[in-house]
C-alpha cells in the first residue's frame, strides 16, 4: 500500500467524511458507554463489521 497526501488547501468531501468517521470511531473506542450516532450510522452501512467494533456493539446491547 502506498500513502498519498492531499496538498490542496480544500480537502475533497470523501476525505473530510473519512476524518469525521475516524474521529467518531476513536471516541467510541475510548468510551463505549457514550452514545455515538456517527458510529451507529457507519456500522449499519458496513457489509462486514470489524471484530474490534463487533465486541463493543454486542456488549453495549446487553
* Largest beta-sheet characterization: none
Q: What would you call the shape?
A: elongated
Strand content: under 5%
Mean pLDDT: 81
Order of helices and strands: HHH
> How many E-type strands?
0
Number of helices: 3
Structure write-up:
- With 62 residues, this protein is mainly alpha-helical.
- The protein has one domain (13-61).
- 61% of the residues lie in helices and 0% in strands.
- It has helices at 13-30, 37-45, 51-61.
- It is elongated.
Briefly, what is this?
The chain has helices at 13-30, 37-45, 51-61.
Secondary structure elements and their pairing?
Blueprint: H1 13-30, H2 37-45, H3 51-61
Keywords:
single chain, 62 residues, mainly alpha, 3 helices, 61% helix, 0% strand, elongated
